[in-house]
Amino acid sequence: MAVTVGLVAQLIEKIAPKSWAEEWDNVGLLVGSGSKTIERILITLDGTLEVVEEAKAFDAQLIVAHHPVIFRPLKNLRADNAAAQVPLRLLQHEIGYYAAHTNLDQSVVSPSRVLGELIGLEKMEPLERVYDVNPSRNSEERGYGVSGYLTRPEKLGVLWQNFLDKLKESGVYSQAYELTGVRLAGSLEREVRKVAIVNGSGGRFVPKALFKGADLLITGDVDHHAVLDALEGGMAVGDLGHFLSEAPMLRSIYDYLSSEKSLQGIEIQVSSVNRSPWL
């Protein structure tokens, strides 16, 4: 049974409307045709050349990704333009590319929520609430990241180690990943009760997490000065790296699309070659 790319787009936009994306973002169908019929979908965070070749080997006609493959303006599609290589290869293999980025970060399949549930947060709410331009939709509780409370205070060192142990268990990520580059800043003996989590690059959320009274912020790609600001404000920081902080989304998207009746019979696979670039 085949379905159209447009149907898959509609299903994703049902939980992550394109209107939710930031103005600077580039989401939706970036390569291909919405009317093309497909039988196989490959899910990935990043659209790399390796992922495109994996899609070709899987005979996938559509890649559903988190990060846009066309982000900065492309001035040409020449063979010697490094930025054009992935779009060119997609066109060559006739593989569509659909990206859901900042809109998906605010959705029910956000990895921030997955990680919040994993660490055992209660009373979860968006760390940074986002309001829709349409007032009728503002009843929907959406936004970036989550904040919540542990059932009881725990020492930072114990909490962090238990959290990492859970990340290694099956069911969180779509496959086993090395916890490469994971870092923690803060006193291991301090007690943690309120936790904020932001998937992806979360350095800019340090002031918001401090304002919310978080004892710990878990995110990725936090720079030196943001960590210093957090520590001076009395908040510890756990840095999973960009990839690991977002990889739970792959399983979430897989589960969501696989559960849709209209996609029964469509083969869906999560990329096995897309991993953290860090050694």
The N- to C-terminal Cα distance equals 41 Å
How many beta-strand elements? Answer: 13
Strand order of the largest sheet: 7-8-10-11-12-9
Structural class: alpha/beta
DSSP helix count? 10
Mean pLDDT: 94
User: Per the principal axes of the C-alpha atoms, what is the gross shape?
Assistant: globular
Helix and strand topology:
Blueprint: E1 3-4, H1 5-15, E2 28-31, E3 37-38, E4 40-44, H2 49-58, E5 62-65, H3 85-93, E6 96-99, H4 102-105, H5 111-119, E7 122-129, E8 143-155, H6 156-167, E9 183-185, E10 191-201, H7 206-211, E11 216-220, H8 224-232, E12 236-239, H9 242-246, H10 248-259, E13 267-270
Characterise the protein shown here.
By secondary structure, the protein is an alpha/beta fold. Helix content is about 30%, strand content about 25%. The chain is built from ten helices and 13 strands. Strand 10 (about 190-200), helix 7 (about 205-210) and strand 11 form a beta-alpha-beta unit. It is globular and about 55 Å long.
Summarize the structure.
The protein has 279 residues and is α/β, with parallel strands linked by helices. The protein has ten helices and 13 strands. It is 31% helix and 25% strand.
